[in-house]
Amino acid sequence: MSIPPELPSERNEEALAEEFQSNTHHPPAPADELFDITTTVDPSYIISLIRKLLPANVKCGEISLGYDAHDASTEGPKTEAFRITSSPTENGDKRSPIHVSETMKTAENFVEQSVDGKLYFQNKHEDVAVREEDWEESGCILWDLAASKTHAELMVENFALEVLLATLMVSKSARITEISLGIIGNLACHDVSRKKITSTNGLIGTVLEQLFLDDAPCLCEACRLITLVLQSEECAFLVEALQSEHILCRVLWIVENTLNLQLLEKSITLLLAVAESKQDVATILLPPLIKLGLPRILVDLLSVEISKLIEERLPERYSFQDLILQTVEALSVMDDYSQEICSNKGLFQLLTQLIKLPDKADFANSCIAASVLTANILTDAADLALEISQGST
């Protein structure tokens, strides 16, 4: 027999008196120490998870940050905020300042210490060493929480991005790198946290560096994150770093050579985001991509997918066809690139081959895109159809 929940009216007076007495000894926190964001998850729990992501070589919350007392003195009273600048890099450069709020210090129970000119944040109760499996558990929880706009804002307000940046810079674990990129990718789904991503000094460049890893899950998350930023109002912050020929070559190499289906989808989606991006972004990124052979790569990929489609109907590959055709279609309607796309005989033959396939219901979207592309080609290169038809007779 189940016991019904206790109703307030059923509680005895003694218990109520004890509760009242207890409450008088635990007054609410001062207004300036309360969190501004309402969340269903205890903010201190989220902060504790962020703290657990600090790199293992960081001492109890130390983010390897240098401290300049002269800079700090210009930032106003320490009760409001204080300035921390990162230690100089090998070439002497310094990263942008990080402002640590009183809320963060109070919530994390940190102790400020100055040792040999450096500022450390040492937690009173936290152990120094964090094993990789513990990091993974905390990271995966934050990965899920970052999908929520409210939790995402709380995370970036409490320096999750700075911690993740530090992790990416020192991580030798592919799994830790994947989770870090995944968390940032979820944060990039929300306006406020995405703006913080693009304004965090060094973060975009560090994310782009991850494109040169050989781990497919890491590359998937990196491509996803880059795509999300390209599709947003903050895309201009990414374009300057992304336009490097070195990076664009790597993106095309991944698209052309990966055997991982998820990575293939994410990398083609990235190219589609470039093709469909704002005019000023496309103007910067597309010319070098075209020069590096993007049209040829797209046609080669389409040829592979149609060959597989003829041999065996694999539903998991239909989305690749759609993405490739959407990217080619986006290029075909641009004045600067339509001629190069529409004059490609191999592309026209592949489109014709796709349209002629029987039982198209399963890949109807691809056939529709192929028909639109064919119409574009016939409009811009009317002689091509006649030339191909004469050559086939």
From TrEMBL:
Its main location: nucleus. Residues 1-34 are annotated as: Disordered. Keywords: Nucleus. One of its GO terms (cellular component) is nucleus. The keyword Metal-binding does not apply. The keyword Nucleus applies. It is found in: Nucleus. SUPFAM superfamilies: ARM repeat. Belongs to the SAAL1 family. This is Protein saal1 isoform X5. It comes from Nicotiana sylvestris.
